[in-house]
Structure formats: structure tokens, C-alpha cells
Amino acid sequence: MNDRDAGQNRQTDYVRIDVGVLIVGAGAAGARTAIELAEAGVEDVLVLGKRGHGDAHTTWARGGINGALGTHDPEDDWTIHAADTLKEGHFLNDPEKVEAVTRQMPDRLRELDEWGMAFSRTEDGEIDQRYFGAQSFRRTAFAGDHTGESMLDTLVERARELEIPYRENVMITKLVSDGWTCYGALGFDMDTGEFLLFDADHVVLAAGGYASIYDRHTSRDDENNGDGPALAYDAGATLLDMEFVQFHPTGMAVDEADPDWAPWSGRLVTEAVRGEGGRLYNADGERFMERYSPDQMELDARDVVARAIATEIDAGRGTENGGVYLDISHRESEFIRERLPRMSERFAALGVDMADGPVEVAPTAHYGMGGVEVDDDGQTDVENLYAIGETMAGVHGANRLGGNSLAETVAYGVVAGSHLAARSDGAGAIPESLVGSVVEPHFAGLAATADTDGETEIRDLVTELQHVMWDHAGILRDEAGLRSGLDAVADIRRRADDAAVGPPSSESFEFAVDLGFMLTAAEAVLRGALERTESRGAHYRTDHEERDPDWQCNIRLERADLGRMRSETVPIGSPSEAVQAALDAGYELDYHQLE
Predict the structure, then answer these.
(1) Where a domain ends, among 421, 440, 462?
(2) Is 59 in the same domain as 144?
């Protein structure tokens, strides 16, 4: 009997916890949903976080949060915000979801302000707003360059005031579902290794996206591994537009051999640096965006700037560390420290003064525009299962407008929370048939995975998968590379069964669970990218370089027999008359106002 067989006979006791609404994910989306429920008088709520309270990926969103307040540009309004979002998304967005976000955002910003968020201010004391890429007006509100951190601090404090129950260091590994209805979730305590069964009337997935399936990415390695989409897909929900992955133009390009710099590889250099006037130069000293986008320059859409940088690097005009230069040294030192405090502090700690010269940057995987398909209330096609924030699809289309990620979290937190607060029905207790067919076999499988010897280290497989995705489904894609990528993912999936894994409280066990999620997300990205034979937004096919009007549709992925992914295309809706009027008006950023 090998170790894995022996694991089947181990004790698989678990603790059962009953709850009305279980929120998986304690970032901004999960917190705002819980707040909405609590303010509506719903008490039977539990928020789960993989990390300590207040330690979520939201804190890494630095540049700002969009809302048409009109602080500097009073002609701006929510319809123009919606129009910019649709244009940036290359019209693959769900117009109703876009409007659900943009209509709300002025009120959501004022609400955060009332709750004490430390927004940067104008001389008149108003919430300040800055330019962000591809936006027609200054509508990105900010707190220096630590907006996400300040926002999450505000939401966590509000949740504490409302005494919302929270449990930290818990990882969800599977949803309890019969394919049509969700009854709860399974997981484990990451400190003790104890297995946990959450019997829930409703489950809300606010567990982030899937950018960490790539080698260079802006997340920490233990987050954004595709948990949310993979959990929903496994439960019977549908995935949408997974091929659209945003590669942020400016991640840190570093000397990987330098132990001080290596941990920062790919970490975000916020768009706020360019929003405050930062300029991009190649190794020849040329401000190259003049060739790619003479009107919008460094503040063109993220996909445009990222491809421009990648092209410069591929052409041999990159820096020693495989990037280009981002320079804001023409601004005063005091201005940089005031407007970009976290960036200036980070580089100063590494011995670089942003006021003295440029820093090196290169594209890095940042955000998944795709995710779980949901209705207007955030509910999936599995009854009682919701997905919000970066876990859901629909708002961003083929490319996300900078500043819209934080906006989506609070807006859809309100949407889902208010809908749940009005519901009195629920899934009810977990049927005994699912205890025998789903709960107990899953816990037995987790036990069998733990404390096993194998030929491969689990972290090595995670790293290999990330390299595969960068090489075969990165900024530039083609059919041969995508097919090779699918073969490589299938091979990693086979070898994962023979990996060395520690106990449930170990890091290797966490990454073994993560790898399963990542493999699902990776396959979905590759299959969607292979099927979409055009270039649109963040998806660029070198063998199909033009945008094809026949592909103005979404790609749905759902489970089929024998573990296969089945795809189909679905049409796009139409914007409202008000938003269409804003589109017809043709508003556009004039970058040269910054010069």
C-alpha cells in the first residue's frame, strides 16, 4: 500500500458550521457584501479569509478608484464613465453590469468618504481625482498611491463596527453542490489543519481572480490562483471570457540574481505614476509611445501600452533587466513624495530615488477580465451561489479600464448584498446524499494528499505551470503555442498526482490545493484563447491580428462528460440610450494636457 492509498484510511473527522450567508474572500468585495447584509439586518453571516483580517489582494490596488464625481471636470458623468468602460472593453462587456457599476460609483465614493477613507484632497477639500489611462476625464479618486489599502482598512473598520463575524486563515477547497444548487463549502483551517464543513443557505465567492497562473504577475504567489472561478466551475457554474488576461504595462523589471530585488519581480508600479506625468523610454532614450499612440501616449489603454513595451523589448531596445524605463524625475521631489508615497518609499528602500532618474518596468500579468458568469444580481447559474469582484465576469470585457477593479468590488458588493438581504429562501441543510457523495470523499481525498512522498516538489509544478502560461498564452499568442500549452497543462496535471506534499497546515499542502485551481484556470484561458481567432483587447493572436466583427461575442465554458470543457458563444447586449449617446459623443482623453 503506498502513502496515498494509506491516506484513504486516515481519520477524516470534520467540524460542521451552520451559517445563512457564507462569504468566501475577505477583500473589498467580500467586506462590502457583508456590510450591506449587516446594514439590512441580516445577522447570520460569516466572512472567511485565507489570511489575517485586512490582509487581502485589495491592498495591492494602488492607483485609484473610479467614479464620476466631476471634482475637476464637472462635465463628466456616469454615462461617460460607462462609455469609456465599454470602449476599453472593446464592447465585449455586459452593458447592464457596466451601468450597475458606473451609476453607483459617485455614491460609493461619498460613502467611503463618510466612513473615514483617507482620500487625497483638493485645495478646496474635495475628493481629488487624477487622470488614468483611456479615461476621458479625471475621475480616478485616490489616497496617494495606496488607495486599495486605505479602502480595505475603511471597509474592515466599518465591518468591525457592525460586529460582522469573521474567520481568518481558512481555505475553501470545494463547494457542496449537486450541479444545480449550492449547499455550502468544504475547507480546512490553515493553522491547525482541521477540516471544516460550512452548511450554508447561500455562498458568495469573492475570492479574487487568476493572474497568478503566470510567471510574472503583480500578486503574491499565494493569492489570485484561480480559486473563485475553479470552485464555481467545479460546482457546475459557467465560466466566461477567460482568455482575456490583462497584462499591466508596468511591473518591476529587476535583476533576478540580486536577492534584494528578486522578490519584487513583476510587482505593480502603479498606473498613477503615468497618471501624474510619468514617461516611458526605451534603452536608446526614445520616448517610444510617440510612435504607438501619439495622442494618448503613456495613458493609452493598458493593452496598447503593454504591447508597445513588449514590442520594444523584442526588438532589442529593452533595458539590461528586460524592461524599459519609466521616468517621472521631471516632477519635483515633494510632488512625487506627496502623490506617490508608497512607490517612492519602495524604490528608496532599494536605493533608487524616483526624483533623480527612471526605474525599470516591463509588462506583468495583473487581472483576469474573465471569470464566473453571473446574472444582474451576481448569482451564478447554480442556485444560491454568487460570484462578485474579480471572481465574476461581465464588467470589463476584453480589457479593464484602470481604476474600475476597486469600483466593481464595492458596487457589486452592494448589488449582491442587497439582493441576498431581500431573499428569505435558502438551500437548506446539506442532503445526506451529498454528504456521502461529495463531503466525505472530498475530505478523504484531502487526507490522502497530505503527508505524501513523491517524485516532484509541488512548488516546482506551480512554477512550471506559470512558465507554460507566460510562454504559450502571454501577451502574444498563436495556435501552435496555445495547443502546446494545453498539452503541457495536461502533463502537469498527470504529474501532480505524484508530488510531495506536507500536512494540511503546511505551505506545500496549500500549494497543492492551489495547483488544482490553477490548472482549471489555465486550461480555460488556453481553450478560450485558442477558440477566439481574432485580436481584441488584451487577447492578441499573431496569427489573427485583426479584430473580427463576427467575434463580438462572449465565450462560455462549462463542464462536459469525462472532465472536458465544452464551449459556446453567446451574443452581447446593447447599452442604454443614455450610454449610447455618450458613446456617440466621442469623448476622449487629451493626454497633452499633462505636458
Answers:
(1) 421
(2) yes
User: What φ, ψ does residue 117 adopt, rounded to 5°?
Assistant: -65, 140
Q: Please indicate, yes or no, whether residues 184 and 56 belong to a single structural domain of this protein.
A: yes
Choose, from 81, 274, 419, 477, the residue flagged as catalytic: 274
- How far is Cα 127 from Cα 120, in angstroms, rounded to an integer? 6
State the average pLDDT over residues 522-536. Answer: 98
> Torsions phi, psi of 18, nearest 5?
-95, 135
Each residue's pLDDT tens digit, 446-501: 999 999 988 889 999 999 999 999 999 999 999 999 999 999 999 999 999 899 99
For residues 89 and 191, state if they share a domain: yes
> In the chain, how many domains are there?
3
How far is Cα of residue 11 from the mean position of the Cα atoms in its chain?
Answer: 36
Set 51, 108, 248, 307: catalytic member: 248
Does residue 216 share a domain with residue 270?
Answer: no
3-class state of residue 230 by DSSP: helix
pLDDT band for position 412 (cuts 50, 70, 90): very high
Cα–Cα dist 531/479, whole Å: 9
This prediction has a pTM of 0.92
Please check whether residues 358 and 373 belong to one and the same domain: no
Give 525 or 338, the one with higher predicted confidence: 525
- The reply to whether 248 belongs to the active site is yes
The answer, yes or no, to whether residue 341 has pLDDT greater than 70, is yes
Is position 591 within any domain?
no
Reference 558, options 245, 242, 230, 237; nearest CA is: 237
Per the annotation, the verdict on 396 as an active-site residue is no
Domain range enclosing 494: 449-551
Same domain, 358 and 278: yes
CB 92 within 8 A of CB 85: no
- HSE-up of residue 436 (Cα within 13 Å, Cβ side): 3
pLDDT reading at 411 higher than 50: yes
What does the CA dihedral 108, 114, 120, 122 come to, rounded to 10 degrees?
A: 100
DSSP annotation string for 255-301: -TT-TTTGGGTT-B--THHHHTT-EEE-TTS--THHHH-TTTGGGS-
Domain finish residue from 366, 382, 397: 366
- State residue 137's pLDDT score: 94
Contact status, residue 71 vs residue 380, Cβ threshold 8 Å: no
Q: Tell me, what's the pLDDT at 54?
A: 55
Q: How confident is the model at residue 302 (pLDDT cuts 50, 70, 90)?
A: confident
Can you give the C-alpha Rg of the chain in angstroms?
Answer: 23
> Is 537 a domain residue?
yes
DSSP 435: I
- Beta partners for residue 185, in sequence order: 175, 198
198-221 confidence digits (pLDDT tens): 999 999 999 999 999 998 877 766
For 93-126, letters b (16+ CB in 10 Å) and e give bbbebbbbbbbbbbebbebbbeeebbbbeeeeee
C-alpha cell at 191: 493553522
